[in-house]
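The freezer alarm interrupted the setup, so I double-checked each line after restarting. Inputs confirmed:
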Amino acid sequence: EIVMTQSPVTLSVSPGERATLSCRASRNIGTDLAWYQQKPGQTPRLLIYDASARATGIPARFSGSGSGTEFTLTISGLQSEDFAVYYCQQHSNWPPWTFGQGTKVEI
Amino acid sequence: EVQLLESGGGLGHPGGSLRLSCAVSGFTFDNYAMNWVRQAPGKGLEWVSGISASGGSTYYADSVKGRFTISRDNSKNTLYLQMNSLGDGDTALYFCAKDQSRWPGGGLDIWGQGTVVTVSS
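Predicted 3D structure, all chains:
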């Protein structure tokens, strides 16, 4: 099983600033990584897949990068609606398609 | 409008069974893999199971392997999760989620609202 480790657990950021979230895979997954956003009481929303491709309707302030075992989600110019929990998930050819434990982005 | 509507959750007894359903509309169901993802109260997301678009290939998390069975009826646009030998660790909100490809592992782009499963005696 590929273990996904996210850091930090909690990230405190002011509106308008940049947030950088990290995700590490326990083995090489190429660029088979997705990022999701989940707000309290809501369902997860796909933000990024294939490490850097934005999903439909996702604003350009969300960007993903990385390959192999190290990945980053960057949120530029944080807006109030961006405060949420973010999860990474490996979507390689090797099940189970594990999630990271999440990073909470708070004000 | 794309819609995934889960049902079948509720109270299950330890060692008992429940069957979840996910009725789909708004896209061509048999073109896409489908998945179940769960979230225990106050916890993160856990991928549970996935099934290919045709239904011919199924995949499970180790935590449910041998106890849960995923299936789909493409004629009814419905996804299922048969849950047997329920344990306390199965208490969670269960989401049905559409994959972006015909095989699981393409990223989950559409999610249902979830159905709550509570395992308790």
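Quick read of the result. The two ends of chain B are 39 Å apart (CA to CA).
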